[in-house]
Amino acid sequence: MTLLDEPGPLLGTGRTADVYALPDGRVLRRYRDGLDATGELAVMARLFEHGYPVPRVWPGPHHHDLIMERLSGPTLAEATAAGTVSADAAGELLVTHLRRLHAIPAQHSSDPSDRVLHMDFHPLNVMLTPDGPVVIDWATATEGPPALDRATSALILAQAAVAFPEFAALARAVLPPFLRHLGPVDPAQLNHARDLRAGNPTLTPVEIAALDEAMTLLAHLG
Length: 222
Description:
Elements: E1 10-13, E2 17-21, E3 26-31, H1 38-49, E4 57-59, E5 65-69, H2 76-82, H3 87-101, E6 115-117, E7 126-129, E8 132-135, E9 142-144, H4 146-163, H5 168-182, H6 187-198, H7 205-209, H8 211-221
Antiparallel strand pairs: 1-2, 2-3, 3-5, 4-5, 6-9, 7-8
């Protein structure tokens, strides 16, 4: 048995994975349902090579594990809620890093206009480290049109504003400047994003039911 089979203290838990401290200063992220992390590791390694701000990553002992550098600092959500980052600055930062991501060509798609997409890009998935913002949680990364990623981020913020009480005030503050810096959201891609969110198995029925209200909010702000 290795230290990776018996990792250190539990640092955090999400909807699908747990994160443990490792004695060498790194962390182990382990999917509880055995989800294969191989593709996620490959995406993050490629983005790191392109200079995009992601954690350094290494293969874990099992296919459902990722070993990553341990980051320090608040999430963008925490910093905005604390008032150390303004809502306008948070919206601009999100858009800047989306555009930076979408400058990286897709690796597998045959469509030259496709790019790497995060598909879960929001203030909780950006950490403000001493070396600058770092984007985390690439489990949903894929390739496709950048407009879909932009629409998905807008929808996630709107959904948080109407369905997640603990994040509603933050989302309502960040969403307008995010949309202002982002520019027009493609209606067809927004509908596609809604369909994808509706089929997301990690969302609760209440959260899925709020998608129509989120779409209404985006239409009002647009």
